[in-house]
Structure formats: C-alpha cells, structure tokens
C-alpha cells in the first residue's frame, strides 16, 4: 500500500519530571525500519506511542493515517510485540495466541488456524501445547512475535524482540521480519545492537536521550558517524616511549598519557590502520602493551559524539 507509515510532529512524552521523548518530528515510509539507540534512549516510549498504548504529552502522531491512542481500528491493522512480559502463564502457547485472535474478532476455527500458522512460523510448533509458564526466555519472545503477526497486520511494532534469543534464534527472527517486509508488511523494530538492524534493513532511525539524532540508510548514517574520531585506551610497560611513536602517525589526532596510571588515550579517524600500526610498533619497540580497549565500540559513546 502507498502512503506514509507514520508522521510525528513535535511529539513529546514525559513521566512526571522524567522526559521519555522530546520534540520528535519524524516521518517514516512503509517498509522495514530499524529503531536504534542505547537503553534509555526513548525507543520504548516511542513504540508505545505508535502502538497506541500511551497518550502523547504534547505534539501529534499519526500511524497508518490514524490517531493511535486507544484506537480499535489501529489495533486491528497493527501488531505489537512489547518488551515486557505479556503472556498468560497458565495457558499453552496455542491457547494464548488463539485467545488474542478471538479478541481480534476471528471465529474459533480461523483463530486456531492463524495461531497454529504463526507458532509454526516462529519455530514454536513443537511447543504449542506446552504451558507458557514453562517456556524459556527465548520461547517467550517467539510467542510474543507469533501473537503480533498472527492476524496478518499491515504494521508490526516490535520492541527489542531479539532479547533472550540465542544466536540461532536471533538469525531466524531477523529472517522472519525481513521476509514479512518482502511480503508487504511494514515492520518497526527496535534494538540497541546496530549489526542486528543491518541484517534486517537499510533504513534506520537513531535515538538518544529522547531525541532523534539521525535517520536514513545505514551507509549514510555510518558516514555521519565516521566523521568523529575513535578513541582507544592503551596501557603499556613503557607508556611514554609508546606514546612518542604513536604521535608520529599521520592518522593519529591526539595522544595523551595519564600520569597516575600510565594510561595512553589515543584519538584517530582510521581505527583499522591504527591497529595495524600499533601491532608493528609494539613488536619493534617491545614496550609491553598490557591492555587495549576501544570504548567507541558501544552505541552510547558514538551517540555522545553526535550530541556533543
């Protein structure tokens, strides 16, 4: 179907004195979009607003052309896989999904058919008659995904759906969402792990501290991130001697040696070249490198660069 998936204008949501989302203006087209940010970035608040679970504190939001809060028409057209546990412990997986399909208005036979099909699709076919109380964390995640897709929605909103899954499960659910996108379903999925989104879609939205930082294809956002230097922390038996050699490298921006503990802090735009050079220098000078860490490997540090 054509048309925008959602549009937010100066959207805000706060909880007392705590700001969950601040002045967000954003438009998304239909398709598969990854919502990325560290824990506490505002992803869950935004997805709850999109799913109609909570009301905006200010601004406007439209999803599939509808005001989402408590909108029964949106509930029929969208599926929501929440981050929190939301399953009935004393029911079987089949009973849970079938019950929710009945709430969607399907008759008993159709609800059962759809529930079985969704459970098979997420890999819970063999466990459909087991009680949810006995499910592992990964199985619970699969069951939540099943109930979100069983009614054939236009949009699936999934909040950290890969948490608790082992590597095989993550790969399987990533493939499921990607296939759903190819079949014409729109998917809005959040994660704090960038490479999981890259395996799913090229379109990403970056959130940090309740604000929008960047939006667009992964390649363009990576170019934006690459404009900021990468930080590396080293420790060595002879830190000053090593620092003198590193500062001579033309792709190293700065080198600082901490007096107290001999730590060396390096900034560089070309991390791979730096690691190659460091290996060579450490072998030639025998300065005794004892530790090496790039703190910029986590999203929190990268986003802090952008905020600054």
Average pLDDT reading: 88
The secondary structure category is: alpha/beta
Profile the largest sheet: 6 strands, mixed
- How many beta-strand elements? 13
CATH architecture of the largest domain: 3-Layer(aba) Sandwich
Count up the domains. 2
The CATH top-level class label of the largest domain = Alpha Beta
Q: Approximately how much helix is present in the residues? A: 25-40%
Radius of gyration: 24 Å
- Bin the strand percentage: 25-35%
CATH topology-level name of the largest domain: Rossmann fold
Q: Strand order across the biggest sheet?
A: 5-6-7-3-8-9
Instruction: Spell out the helices and strands N to C.
Output: EEEHEHEHHHEHEHEEHEHEEHEH
Shape label: elongated
Please give the structural blueprint.
Blueprint lengths: L3 E12 L2 E12 L2 E5 L6 H9 L6 E6 L8 H6 E4 L11 H11 L4 H14 L15 H13 L5 E5 L7 H16 L3 E6 L2 H5 L4 E6 L2 E7 H9 L3 E7 L2 H8 L5 E6 L5 E6 L2 H15 L3 E5 L5 H9 L1
Helix pairs in contact: 3-4, 4-5, 9-10
Structure description:
The protein is an alpha/beta fold and 308 residues long. It has 2 domains: 222 residues, P-loop containing nucleotide triphosphate hydrolases (Rossmann fold, 3-Layer(aba) Sandwich); 80 residues, Alpha-Beta Plaits. It contains 11 helices and 13 strands. It has a 6-stranded mixed sheet with strand order 5-6-7-3-8-9, sandwiched between helices. Strands 11-12-10-13 form a 4-stranded antiparallel sheet, covered by helices on one side. Strands 2-1-4 form a 3-stranded antiparallel sheet, covered by helices on one side. The longest helix is centred in the middle third of the chain and has 16 residues.
